[in-house]
Structure formats: C-alpha cells, structure tokens
Write a structure and sequence with these properties.
Elements (H helix, E strand, L loop, with lengths): L1 E2 L10 H5 L3 H29 L7 H17 L1 H11 L8 H33 L9 H34 L1 E4 L45 E6 L2 E6 L5 E5 L2 E6 L2 E5 L3 H5 L7 E5 L2 E4 L3 E6 L5 E5 L4 E4 L4 H9 L1
Parallel strand pairs: 2-7
Antiparallel strand pairs: 1-4, 2-3, 3-4, 5-6, 5-9, 6-7, 8-9, 10-11, 11-12
Helix pairs in contact: 2-3, 3-5, 4-5, 4-6, 5-6
Length: 326
C-alpha cells in the first residue's frame, strides 16, 4: 500500500490516535453505562418500595437491580457478535432472515439474562441466610422478556451505529477512475502503415469469425481515503474480504477499508484464480492463507498470514480446494 505523494507521514488522523486505546474506551463505556443505569434503577426501585404495602429491604433491591445490569454487562460480547453476524442480512431480499435472526437471538439472550440473574440473586440470598424465590419461571420469564426486548433493540442499535461510524472514520475505498480523454503523458502512437488493396480472386472466401467477447477490465488498484490522507491499495494486497451490509470490507495488512458494493459484485471484478469465496459473507486471497483448520460438521477456520482467522463454511470447501489446487 503506497501513500499518495504530498501527504505528511507524521500527521496522525483521529482514527489512528483512537485505535491504540479503542478497546479500553469501548470496555470502559459499557462498564460506566451499566453502572450508571444500575444506580439510577436502584434509586427508583428504592423509592417505589417505600410506597408498597410490604416494603423490601434495601439490600434486596440492590441485589435485584445490580444482578440484572451485571449480567447484561457480561453479555455485551454476545450482543456484538450477534450484530456483526446478522449485519450482512440487512439488505433487500434478506429482511425475513434478518428479523428472524434477531428474534431468535433476543430470546436466547433473554434466557441467558434471566438465568444469570437467578444465579446471582440465589448466591447473594444464600450468603445472607435466605432463599431467593423467582416466582414461577414461565410467567416471570415472559415479563422479563418484554423488558429485555427493549434493552436488546437499544443495545444492538447502539453497536450498529458505533460500528458504522468507525467504518466511516477508517475511510471508504473506490476503484480508481479511468484517465480522462485527451489527458495522457504517453506519446501518441504512430499511425499504422497503409494496407495494400486486396487482389481479386475467384476462390471462395471464408466468413470472418466473430471477435471473442471482451472481458471487463479488472481494477488493479483502489483509492482509499482516510480523512485528509489518501492511499493506493493494490488488488493483490487484499488479504480477505467481508460483507458489511451494503459495503465490502477490505482487510489489507491489518487495516480495514470500505467499498460501496456487494461481496458478489466486487468478487466479479477480482481474479477468480486468486480470490475465492469461502463463506456467505467472506472471501479470501488464496496466497494469504497460512493454515486451514478443519472443524466439526465439515466447516473450517482459515488462519491468514496477517494473524486473523476467517470462517469457511462446508458448502464452499470444494471451491476453496479447487482454487488451492489450481
């Protein structure tokens, strides 16, 4: 990847300054958010408990609210994984699978949330010398699920918006434009020599065969913009690709860039002898594969030379094998 001349190498943009502390900021954000929500929810619950006929002890209320937000905090990586996995389905023609996937995920996360709350509360009550009564799993879980759906939607939407913002901050790639007509540094080619007229002949002439179809030119380089800097990326330097909704994420030497296209359309512009689709949302550069790790059920995990891993589903194993042999 080469930088466009005239750009200062010493200037670090916002994304580059943020990247080293990104994971700490993300973890700190969720910890602080859940802590604040837990405190506010506890204060409201304490006030409501005073107006009830049978007031509850403060430590019980703290346990109820604290266990809920603690388990939600522990489930944040699951929210992130679900959002990333279902993001490629957020396009026309896949809305049913997109909504169904989130419904199933919300039910599974709600079950995990309720089970985790029950475990934490039972432990605290046992340490206090009592016994926690959940009040009936079927009816209580239905009530908790209605609350968890709102939490699920807000958390997933927040993760999606943040990921989209980070992708925009990294920069969007595009195919380099063709040179304008009449603008060229190369000398004009010499005119071809005159062709002598053909002599008349009585021999039958064979009909000319139609010219072979011209294949669309494959782009060799892409222009990547990252705030005030621009880079050139060679197509052969792409390690692997991932569908990102209406975009394709290009993973190049540990960096991620976006190109507005679907994965299928973008792969049609790349050399099929080098780039192979290995998953419904992933494709790889065969030259960048370091190791193939077989998994149960016929799937595999591809370990790349850049240190990352890419999933390979069973339905694409034959294409991967054929590409590697070829």
């Amino acid at each position: 990847m080469a930088r466009i001349p005239g750009m200062k190498a010493s200037h670090r943009n916002l994304y580059e300054r943020y990247e080293p502390i990104r994971r700490y900021v993300e973890a700190g954000f969720w910890i602080v958010l859940m802590a604040l929500q837990g405190v506010f929810s506890t204060m409201v619950a304490v006030v409501d408990a005073r107006n009830r006929a049978v007031p509850r002890a403060t430590w019980e209320i703290v346990t109820w609210e604290g266990s809920s937000h603690l388990v939600l905090l522990m489930l944040i990586p699951v929210f992130v994984a679900v959002e990333r996995r279902l993001a490629p389905l957020m396009m026309p023609g896949r809305w049913v699978r997109f909504v169904a996937g989130h419904v199933v995920a919300s039910v599974a996360i709600s079950v995990a949330h309720v089970a985790g709350m029950f475990a934490v509360r039972s432990l605290v009550y046992a340490l206090a010398g009592g016994r926690y009564d959940f009040g009936g799993w079927s009816a209580q879980w239905g009530y908790e699920y209605l609350k968890d759906v709102r939490v699920y939607v807000s958390i997933v939407f927040g993760i999606w918006a943040y990921r989209l913002f980070m992708l925009r901050l990294q920069g969007e790639a595009r195919v380099l434009d063709a040179p304008e007509a009449g603008v060229s540094d190369a000398p004009e080619p010499a005119p071809p020599p005159p062709v002598p007229p053909a002599l008349p002949t009585d021999a039958p002439t064979e009909p000319e065969s139609p010219p072979p179809p011209t294949l669309p030119a494959r782009p060799e380089r892409f222009l990547v913009r990252k705030l005030r800097r621009e880079f050139l990326i060679a197509a052969t330097d792409i390690d692997w690709l991932q569908a990102e909704g209406n975009y394709v994420g290009l993973h190049v030497n540990g960096h991620d860039y976006l190109l507005r296209a679907t994965l299928t359309d973008f792969l049609a512009q790349l050399d099929p002898a080098r780039f192979v689709r290995v998953h419904r949302s992933h494709a790889v550069n065969l030259a960048r594969i370091k190791e193939i790790e077989p998994l149960d059920g016929g799937d595999a995990r591809l370990h790349m030379h850049d240190g990352t891993s890419v999933p390979c589903s069973r339905r694409y194993r034959d294409a991967l094998r054929a590409g590697a042999v070829g």
